[in-house]
Amino acid sequence: MSSTLDRRRLLQAAGAGAVAAVAPATEATPGPASLTPARSDIGVSAYAFALGRVRLGPSRWLDNQHRTLAYLRFVDAERLLYNFRANHRLSTNGATANGGWDAPAFPFRTHVQGHFLTAWAQAYAALGDTVCRDKADRMVTELAGCQANNSAAGFGAGYLAGFPESDFTALEAGTLTNGNVPYYCIHKTLTGLLDVWRHLGSTRARAVLLALAGWVDDRTKRLSAARMRAVLRTEFGGMNAVLTDLYQQTGDARWLAVAQRFDHAAVFDPLASNQDRLNGLHANTQVPQWIGAAREYKATGTTRYRDIAANAWNFCVGAHSYAIGGNSQAEHFRAPHAIAGHLTADTCELCNTHNMLTLTRELWQLNPGRVAYVDYYERALLNHVIGAQNPSDPHGHITYFTPLNPGGRRGRGPAWGGGTWSTDYQSFWCCQGTGVEAGTRLTDSVYFHNGTTLTVNLFLPSVLDWNQRGITVRQSTAYPASDTTALQVTGDVGGSWSMRIRIPAWTSGATIGVNGTAQNVTATPGTYATLTRSWTSGDTVTVRLPMRVATHAADDDADLAAITYGPAVLCGNYGDTALSAPPALDVASITRTSTTALAFTATADGRPVRLTPFHDAQGFNYAAYWRIGGRSAGNGTAERL
Ligand SMILES: [Zn+2]
After folding, report:
1. pLDDT-based confidence at residue 34 (cuts at 50, 70, 90)
2. Separation of 43 CA from ligand 1 center, angstroms?
3. CATH class name, domain 447-477+484-544
4. CA-based, 20 to 30 A from 359: which of 28, 519, 537, 576?
5. Which Pfam families match (predicted)?
6. Distance of alpha carbon 102 from its chain centroid, rounded?
């Protein structure tokens, strides 16, 4: 059930958005090739392009990428090595210790370094950035040195962490009380090493990775099933995911067996039988395991794994997510559809949504006709992940939570979640590590291919180098400020092939033209429109996705709603004014005031208020949910599952 306002002036304003004024994306240059896994994924029918095959054009996405890259180039690898070296009884080489969640006394120090390895590897893969490549190489070399000193440090072969191995002994004995989540950290390090191996071709990273994975095998194979279940009660990230990835990458079945030791029956069993028992669970302890289930399906073909992942997605998106695509309150899932009572300053942990995007992508590649997956992906990426970065910070620091309380403000969560934007060296929260990963993989889900079909999933300025076919696709758009995007194909475009274009569920009256001529192509909302033709170099496809104001009511309170315009959530700009309750919005008063920007005015609590895209709401107090006076009920079509 969706209430929309087809107000003539809104449509007129939307239709005026032009694509011609937008600069095209910069020329694509082939990035370095990443390694091909030994095993291909089972069940996949849409394939990603290598990160380096897609370049961003001028846009908020590119700005975010630039700021993340600046931080990745700036951050000192020696400081990030401090705890590893100290723990493995090596000199810290005069480096300064970090603060925050990487301070020398913090229980799960060295959880964040794996994120940096991944981000540096992705920056190299996507952009060919050699500064990031060299930092990754430097860290891996030093990590190899840490492992080489294990005997002197009293650790088992392959061990690699910034805290003593005795934390694992305590974990296995059920006596770990210092707050550490040791396998969570190991998961991050394994993933970072895997990404350095596959994106940089680093055989040293491969060796360190295999040694650490071997240590995990040695450590877990001697545990009884009951003891292993007890170990899994402490957050362990996506150990099943990364070890399955290692199986796919190497072809060595040893790693699948180790991965499956981390199958958590308490999480998997209810999901396999399609029961939503998420209430009260720590959200980001769950999502990485769901990703692991998707990976285990693709490695084994066992449909139970696929069902676990797909059911988890349905529950999380359909019953536990806010309008911006985020989930969790105080890091925990609440009762299904309990939204209205949980609009607080500690909603929407960034890690959860980034990981949900990963899960969504995994599931969509199994079922690439399901637009609901990508509609969610777009909504969560734009409104939550993109908006979680501070655009006034040259290092692109992030907010841990995205507050949804009345008068909430990004970077002003509770003290235990940082309470501010992240900093260069004094934060290192989980979400900061997630943020550098997110800012270096923004190109990974725009386009996909399968044989002679190209899928266009996201609308943002970009250039695709479809190198297998010698085709370049240049997308120019100001979306979502404009409802129109242009895709020009050049190069060796001859012969018949298909362009498959996502038509979001929220639009109506979508049109597709080629070189200015309307095409007789079915463009039903919530489906893909397929344009099959014999192409000529220079052909330009124009896609128009009319946008309108819609209300998205909280599942449990039809009078409490967020406002959307196309994919963008709109929020009220309240400056420094505190709000004690959601403002009462006159929905009919919402008026677009610009043809080139998503700028609106409205009346709320009897006073005028400016509405802006939520992803651009930084530096002021906002209202994301409103009292709408019974003018609507229910959620938008994006959530209809
Ligand atoms: Zn986090």
Report:
1. confident
2. 31
3. mainly beta
4. 28
5. Beta-AFase-like_GH127_cat, Glyco_hydro127M
6. 23
Cα-to-centroid distance, 252 and ligand 1 (Å): 32
* DSSP calls for 55-85: EE-SSHHHHHHHHHHHHHHHS-HHHHHHHHH
Closest CA to 250 of 281, 312, 207: 207
Domain ranges in the chain with CATH number 2.60.40:
447-477+484-544
Q: 353 C-alpha to center of ligand 1: Å?
A: 9
- What's the 350 CA to ligand 1 centre distance in angstroms? 5
Distances 641 to 82, 184, 268, 318, 604 between C-alpha atoms, Å: 48, 32, 21, 7, 32
Amino acid present at 163: F
CATH T-level assignment (fold) for domain 26-438: Glycosyltransferase (1.50.10)
d(CA 429, CA 499): 41
Q: Report how far residue 368's alpha carbon sits from residue 456's, in angstroms, rounded to the nearest whole number.
A: 11
How far apart are the CA of 561 and the centre of ligand 1, in A? 26
Q: What is the DSSP string of 201-263?
A: --HHHHHHHHHHHHHHHHHHHTS-HHHHHHHTTS--TTHHHHHHHHHHHH--THHHHHHHHT-
Instruction: Read off the amino acid at residue 421.
Output: W
Task: Identify any residues that bridge with 449 across adjacent strands, giving them in sequence order.
Answer: 47, 454
Distance 253 CA to ligand 1 centre (A): 31
Whole-angstrom distance, CA of residue 278 vs CA of residue 520: 45
Q: Residue 474 C-alpha to ligand 1 middle, in angstroms? A: 34
Dist. CA 277 → ligand 1 center (Å): 22
Residues 251/199, Cβ–Cβ less than 8 Å: no
Percentage of the chain modeled with pLDDT above 70:
93
Q: Please, which contacts does 144-149 make with residues 24 or more away whose CB atoms are closer than 8 Å?
A: 144/204, 144/207, 144/208, 145/88, 145/90, 146/84, 146/85, 146/87, 146/88, 146/90, 147/88, 147/208, 147/211, 147/212, 149/88, 149/89, 149/90
Mean pLDDT (whole number) for 585-608? 97
Kindly report, as residue ranges, where domains of CATH 1.50.10 are found in the chain: 26-438
* 110: its two tokens: 């060295």
A 10 A CB-CB count for 323 gives: 27
State how far Cα 400 lies from the chain centre: 14
Please give the Cα distance from 600 to 595 (Å, whole number).
Answer: 10
Distance 216 CA to ligand 1 centre (A): 24
Residue range 517-526, pLDDT digits in tens: 999 999 999 9
Ligand 1 center to 415 CA (angstroms): 14
Radius of gyration of the chain (CA): 24
| Higher-confidence position of 24 and 138 | 138
66 Cα–ligand 1 center, Å:
22
Quick one: pLDDT at residue 631? 61
Amino acid 443 reads: T
C-alpha distances (whole Å) from 78 to each of 74, 131, 237, 264 are 12, 14, 25, 36
Mean pLDDT of 365-381: 98
Burial of 616 (0-12, 13-18, 19+ CB in 10 A): middle
Could you report how far apart the first and last alpha carbons of the chain are, in Å? 12
Residue 392 Cα to ligand 1 middle (Å): 21
Neighbour count for residue 206 (Cβ, 10 Å): 20
CA of 74 to the centre of ligand 1 (A): 22
